[in-house]
């Protein structure tokens, strides 16, 4: 699923403006509150495409997670120590099986 093939030009323009303004999470919250189902579906599909793009473009899983948290405006509530342990676990997993992620 790609943005170019799954959305009309008008839809892409609207969603790109919201994306460029970093307003997609707020827009999704608003249409959910207003129960505008067709726009909910449109936004959900667009956000899914963006998540896929961001994940694939990231150099590693830890960077990808940080980029996704930024995109979705999700606070990372893990401590630096916890993140350090996770980073080591991810490095070990990658060393044991290079295709793990």
Which key phrases capture this entry?
elongated, 101 residues
Describe this structure in words.
This protein has helices spanning 3-6, 9-20, 24-34, 37-57, 61-72, 80-96. With 101 residues, it is an all-alpha fold. The protein has a domain at 9-57. The longest helix is centred in the middle third of the chain and has 21 residues, at 37-57. The chain is elongated. InterPro entries: SKP1-like_dim_sf, SKP1/BTB/POZ_sf. This is Skp1 family, dimerisation domain containing protein, putative.
Helix residue percentage: over 70%
| Distance between the amino and carboxyl termini | 20 Å
Strand content: under 5%
Structural class: mainly alpha
In this structure, how is the largest beta sheet organized?
none
Uncertain segments are: none
Question: How many runs of DSSP E, i.e. beta strands?
Answer: 0
Total of DSSP H or I helical runs spanning 4+ residues: 6
Order of helices and strands: HHHHHH
Radius of gyration: 17 Å
Mean pLDDT: 91
Shape: elongated
Overview in brief:
The chain has about 100 residues and is mostly helical.
Helix-strand blueprint:
Blueprint: H1 3-6, H2 9-20, H3 24-34, H4 37-57, H5 61-72, H6 80-96
Helix pairs in contact: 3-4, 4-5
């Amino acid at each position: 699923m790609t943005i170019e093939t799954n959305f009309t030009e008008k839809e892409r323009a609207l969603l790109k403006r919201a994306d460029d303004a970093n307003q997609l999470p707020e827009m999704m919250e608003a249409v959910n509150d207003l129960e505008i189902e067709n726009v909910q579906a449109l936004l959900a599909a667009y956000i899914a495409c963006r998540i896929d793009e961001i994940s694939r473009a990231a150099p590693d899983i830890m960077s990808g997670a940080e980029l996704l948290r930024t995109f979705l405006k999700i606070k990372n509530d893990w401590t630096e120590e916890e993140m350090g342990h996770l980073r080591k676990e991810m490095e070990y997993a990658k060393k044991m099986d290079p295709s793990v992620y």
